[in-house]
Design goal:
It is a single chain. By secondary structure, the chain is an alpha+beta fold. The protein folds into 2 domains: 7-176, Deoxyribonuclease I, Chain A (4-Layer Sandwich), CATH 3.60.10.10; 190-234, no CATH class. Helix content is 26%, strand content 30%. The chain contains 5 helices and 12 strands. The strands form 4 sheets. Strands 3-4-5-6-8-7 form a 6-stranded mixed β-sheet, covered by helices on one side.
Length: 250
């Protein structure tokens, strides 16, 4: 994009902006790209190769946000849902804030379209949100999507700039969603061979239960003696554990 050998592309490049792109390997033309301000310090990242869609990905720092441009060809593929689910799984496990935007060639505006419905179900299941609700194509369909995870996002407008059969979607990130780690409290005893030996010694010194005692009393007394011995040698310790957010499909 900044190649001096291609003057038209150089002239079209905004100053202080960087281009991230991926070329189409299977045939001529195509590919995906996005332009970002150099202030954002975007670092390109590459995940698995997928056959049913193309993508370009980069990570912005401070705070860390993964930005992905996606293009899915209009030809239907039975394995797209499977491949895109795998892609979302990879992203979900690696990043807490994600933006996916691009031409998905799905009729999201048609609630009776089973392919689009399955796609939206996957997004919902993995806690991703799709924000575009207006037509983005001159034939009246919503094909270009803005999908986010861990970000509060609003689409301000969808405008026909008369440069393509697709419209331009303007959106903004309004805030970050704080993803709190799950917290749980556990109680534990540290049982060692030394504790076991001491337990037997302490238990031997406890006076026996009277033979005339009832069965219920004897059982309760025995349990109480066991607990007292354990509390003396291996007292309960309380721990608060902070675990990493679990993947929604687990």
């Amino acid at each position: 994009f900044k190649d001096p050998r291609i003057p038209c592309l150089t002239e079209a490049s905004p100053p202080d902006f960087n281009l991230n792109f991926s070329t189409r390997c299977s045939k001529r033309g195509g590919g995906t790209a996005f332009i970002s301000s150099s202030i954002l310090s975007a670092k390109p990242v590459l995940f698995d190769h997928f056959t049913t869609f193309e993508y370009t990905a980069a990570v912005f720092s401070s705070p860390q946000i993964l930005c992905v441009t996606v293009y899915r060809p209009p030809k239907q593929s039975a394995i797209f849902i499977q491949e895109f689910s795998e892609f979302l799984s990879i992203l979900h496990n690696s990043f807490e804030r994600i933006i996916l935007a691009g031409d998905f060639n799905l009729h999201i505006d048609n609630p009776s379209d089973p392919f689009a419905k399955e796609f939206l179900n996957i997004l919902s299941y993995m806690d991703f949100s799709q924000h575009v609700t207006q037509p983005t194509h001159n034939r009246g369909h919503t094909l270009d999507l803005v999908i986010t995870y861990g970000l509060s996002t609003s689409v301000s407008s969808v405008i026909d700039l008369a440069v393509s059969d697709h419209y331009c979607v303007f959106f903004s990130i309004t805030s970050f969603i704080q993803l709190e780690p799950s917290v749980r409290t556990v109680r534990e005893r540290h049982l060692t061979p030394e504790v076991a030996a001491g337990f037997l010694e302490v238990f031997r010194k406890i006076p026996p239960t009277p033979v005339t005692a009832s069965c219920d009393f004897t059982v309760n007394d025995f349990n109480s003696r066991l607990k007292s011995a354990l509390d003396l040698l291996a007292p309960l310790k309380i721990k608060i554990l902070y675990s990493k957010r679990a993947s929604p499909w687990r």
